[in-house]
Amino acid sequence: MLDELRHPVVQAPMAGGMSTPELAAAVSNAGGLGFLAAGYLIPRDVREQVHAVRRLTDQPFGVNIFVPDTSTVDGPALARYRDRLTVEAQRYGVELGDAVDEDDGWIGKLAVVREERVPVVSFTFGCPDSFVMAELKEAGCTVVVTVTSATEASKAVAAGADALCVQGSEAGAHRGTFQNNAGPLDDTSLLPLLRKVIAAVDAPLIATGGLSCGADVAAVLVAGARAAQLGTMFLLCPEAGTSQVHRDALVREGRTAVTRAFTGRPARALVNRFVTKHSAAAPTAYPHVHHLTRMLRGAGDPEAMSLWAGQAHEFAREMPAAELVTTLGDGARAAIAEAARRFS
Ligand SMILES: Cc1cc2nc3c(=O)[nH]c(=O)nc-3n(C[C@H](O)[C@H](O)[C@H](O)COP(=O)(O)O)c2cc1C
Question: Rounded to an integer, what distance in angstroms lies between the CA atom of residue 83 and that of residue 159?
Fold first, then answer.
């Protein structure tokens, strides 16, 4: 499937309303692979988005699903974090949410992608068991698992993944790490991570994290990936559902950091007041913290919003998704030709 793309470019699934059916379809129509993000949606809405994509393209596309997190949660630490955020709620005149646990509609979403025979189904935050994988493959889906280490890559291949999405630590938004409470975060960046994964498994790889132009796409293809997945660069496309505040913040130079402050899972965001003030105190508690901070993040203040961004965010430019796919694909081809000339 990855070898059939006209441009070896995957538009990252971006939960939270950014990867719209219009964005996914535009990318697939342009010869890349567009993705819907099922995260945070209810299964019925996922099905509607799948139908919407199919009205806009007859090309392959993907749907991404969050694997439920079974990590244990430190209840007292979560309670302390809730207390800490009370002043933030008062500041914005909103309520803190209930820090509930739930599985993001896991069973319902698996049923949707199976019944709809979605061409590519990718997972993040964990690895589905081999039974789930086999059912999807029987329905004709290509199964991709996001990995952030060679150990995760080996587990995903053993469970039956058709391909892996290798996520370097440069990546915008959530790390795909299988276990939220597995100790210190592995911060290996994309190129060394690709090398480690290639040494551990024999599987088609999609490389993702901090890529911003055709030359970057070329770099990961030369390093052994079959395709490059970009998220942040697609956030400025007119087809994306990105808020204006987020768009304005992305193009400014500014630091990013990996933080649990917004959701309880490590995720890369632009550094703002909320990140600076609360990251050190944020507990390992997903999706509890995600629900706790929902109204704060929605209050509209860029200093308290989760402005997800990869490390190369300031290179994002507003352009139609089809143009971005073509620019990346053609740029990669030119960069590879240019690099090859250095040897003559
Ligand atoms: C706003 C945003 C939301 C994201 N949501 C998801 C998601 O729902 N599922 C997923 O697998 N990855 C998600 N990602 C991570 C991407 O798949 C990818 O790893 C990342 O965008 C790569 O880094 P880059 O943003 O520097 O290109 C998201 C990324 C961004 C920027």
Answer: 41
Q: How far is the CA of 341 from the centre of ligand 1 (A)?
A: 34
Quickly state the pLDDT bin for 324 (edges 50, 70, 90): very high
3-state helix/strand/coil string of 321-334: HHHHHHHHHHHHHH
Stretch 140-169: mean pLDDT? 98
Looking at the DSSP assignment, which residues form a beta bridge with residue 206? Answer: 165, 227
Say yes or no to pLDDT of 181 above 90: no
Tell me the best of 18, 27, 232 to mutate to test the pocket of ligand 1, counting ligand atoms within 8 Å of each CB and taking the most. 232
Exposed e or buried b per residue across 72-108, where buried means at least 16 C-beta atoms within 10 angstroms of its C-beta: ebeeeebeebbeebeebbeeeebebbebeeeebbbee
Can you tell me the distance from the alpha carbon of 91 to that of 203, in angstroms, rounded to the nearest whole number?
A: 50
Question: Quick check: CB of 32 below 6 Å from ligand 1?
Answer: no
For the Cβ of 35 lying below 6 angstroms from any atom of ligand 1, the answer is no
What domains sit in the chain, N to C, each tagged with a CATH number?
2-341 (3.20.20.70)
Name the band, by pLDDT with cuts 50, 70 and 90, for residue 1.
confident
Cα–ligand 1 centroid distance for 87 (angstroms): 30
Ligand 1 contact via 263 beta carbon (within 6 Å): no
Report how far residue 82's alpha carbon sits from residue 99's, in angstroms, rounded to the nearest whole number.
9
Q: From CA 150, how far away is CA 141, in angstroms rounded?
A: 24
Give residue 160 CA to ligand 1 midpoint distance, Å.
23
Of ligand 1's listed atoms, the one at least distance from the Cα of 171 is 23
Q: Which pLDDT band, with edges at 50, 70 and 90, does 54 fall under?
A: very high
DSSP 32: S
Residue 148 CB less than 6 A away from ligand 1: no
